[in-house]
Amino acid sequence: MGKTLFDSPSFANHEGVHAFTDEKTGLKAIVAVHSTARGPACGGTRMWNYASAEEALEDVLRLSKGMSYKNAIADLEMGGGKSVIIGDSKTQKSPELFHAFGRAVDTLGGTYYAAEDVGVSVSDIAEARKVTPYVLGLSDGPEASGDPSPVTAEGVFRSTLVVARRLWKQDDLTGLTVALQGIGHVGGYLADKLHAAGARLVMTDVNTALLAEVAARTNAEIVTPDAIYDVKADIYAPCALGATLNLQTLDRLTVKAVVGAANNQLATPDIGDILFQRGVLYAPDYVINGGGIINVAAEMNARLSGGAYDPAWVEAKLARLIQTFEEILERSATEGRSTHLIADAIAEARIQAAAETKAEALKRT
Description:
Blueprint: E1 16-22, E2 27-35, E3 41-48, H1 53-73, E4 79-86, H2 95-106, E5 112-116, H3 122-129, H4 149-168, E6 177-181, H5 187-196, E7 200-204, H6 208-218, E8 221-222, E9 235-238, E10 257-258, H7 269-277, E11 281-282, H8 285-288, H9 291-305, H10 311-335, H11 339-364
Parallel strand pairs: 3-4, 3-5, 6-7, 6-9, 7-8, 9-10, 10-11
Antiparallel strand pairs: 1-2, 2-4
Helix pairs in contact: 1-11, 2-3, 4-5, 4-9, 4-10, 9-10
């Protein structure tokens, strides 16, 4: 018998995995709903030129589980889901493609809400909104939260300051070198904040034109994509795709901390343990990059209540998230356990508690 979805190492008792195609527009999409224990599954839509459907499936399974954990750790009334569109975002986008994607999301009846991610913009999501209410991250209307990237970057920046205080006993980044991998949606905003706080930046990205632009305004040194791992730096900030912390890159890194915005930075969970054993502080990605989904949650709150987007609510949630990060670091130091295991335990406990409450409520109906 051939390999099935259930044999995938990334399958984690997902509630649903849905494949959608549309011949007219060329849409090939997968939506993975990991958990709705805490509320409707919510997570971004990634458009990427995957080498195979299997690669796309593995990515969406990992990312959707990560969203369950991210939403739980940010204490949001949301479950975890994710969607991927197989294709080149530079050449294959069209309004019709996102109309087809919106119709696909609509068939799930609010089990999953889509938002922006790599390769997908606010305007793309606005096209999907024309055919379904189950999208978030819009730029128009009183409830609209707009591009979540600046809030994501703010959370990662504040986490970097937490790390600087913990490791170097300083309140800014003066004298510290950050190796920044990826200056797209989030990385560019983060670069500006790091530079303003005094950091020396060494950066890379496959988009050479954008890289030159960001490097010019932040006085950054540019290196090739592969060379970023060999930079003599204090902090490695992965802000591109995931799994860049792996057995091939670990021995090349000389940093004391990893603080970045990318999802699923650890190729395998044991990489987090290796970092801990080597004395490298790892900021769990789904903890510190939760600012964007907090911003999106504010839009959902406004839509459900008929009110308006509330920046004060976003700030309060973001501040609490940074406190949670500090608690994770403190527990890691006192318990002698890696940060990713402690973060996972907190998220899993919150998801399990919600699932049990939901099950009890169903029994009473």
